[in-house]
Design a protein that fits this description.
It is built from nine helices and eleven strands. It has 233 residues and is an alpha/beta fold.
């Protein structure tokens, strides 16, 4: 009888082990870019895409969810390798559609803005869109995050600029860049409005900045969940 009980016990244990082992899993990639993802401090875990991701995961109860932080370039590379991984909010482009399966839109955000000190461009008001290429070619300097992609449209403009006009620094987010802008160590920067709102911690500092929309970019953009373009994705 004990042998029968042992056989049944091991059979049940094997079934549960196999079920647990075979359960489909998703690795969700995150970036270290507050306030999109916030990995430290009092707002840890409260990045706005982290909150969107919580809602997505609630509807995927048949999956085991894992999380990994990586650079944007690494994330796109892994999606291209058809790994069982996804990114919660990607901008859809023709190039990305070649290897990424996109969901329906899950977010709506403003597009990038050009950031300057108040009154730095006196002949343009903040209701106008600026020609980024023409403006920076006037020998203004722009400070950017090293190895960060600003989207195909902006990256193409940046590739046409003289390298002396562009300075890139290693930083986790735009906080350092905005501080350097206010200290007049650069003329301009690129950031999303919600990044400026997050890093500029008081109204007095915010009033020292001008934000301009960029000609050729829409005012808003849609974000989609992006997974490998295969049967699993």
């Amino acid at each position: 009888m004990n042998k029968v009980f042992q056989l049944v016990f091991y059979f049940i244990l094997t079934i549960f082990s196999f079920s647990s082992w075979s359960k489909n899993s998703i690795t969700w990639y995150e970036t270290n870019t507050p306030p999109v993802f916030i990995h430290e401090g009092p707002c840890k875990g409260q990045g706005y895409i982290q909150l969107i991701l919580e809602q997505i995961i609630e509807g995927l109860t048949d999956y085991e969810h894992r999380f990994e932080t990586a650079t944007g370039a690494r994330i796109l590379y892994n999606l291209k390798q058809e790994e069982k991984s996804c990114y919660p909010t990607l901008i859809k482009t023709k190039q990305r559609e070649e290897f990424i399966a996109f969901s329906k839109p899950v977010e709506l955000t403003p597009t990038l803005r050009l950031i300057t000190r108040k009154g730095f461009i006196p002949d343009i008001n903040q209701n106008e869109s600026i020609d980024l290429l023409a403006l920076i070619n006037k020998k203004y300097s722009i400070l950017l995050i090293k190895e960060r992609s600003y989207g195909l449209f902006i990256d193409d403009i940046l590739s046409q600029l003289e390298t002396g006009n562009i300075q890139r620094i290693v930083t986790a987010g735009n906080q350092t860049i905005l501080k350097m802008l206010l200290k007049k160590r650069t003329d301009m920067a690129l950031a999303y409005p919600f990044e400026v709102n997050f890093f500029v911690n008081d109204l007095q500092m915010f009033e020292q900045l001008d934000l301009y929309s960029i000609k050729g970019l829409p005012q808003y953009q849609l974000g989609h969940v992006g997974c490998p373009k295969n049967a699993w994705g």
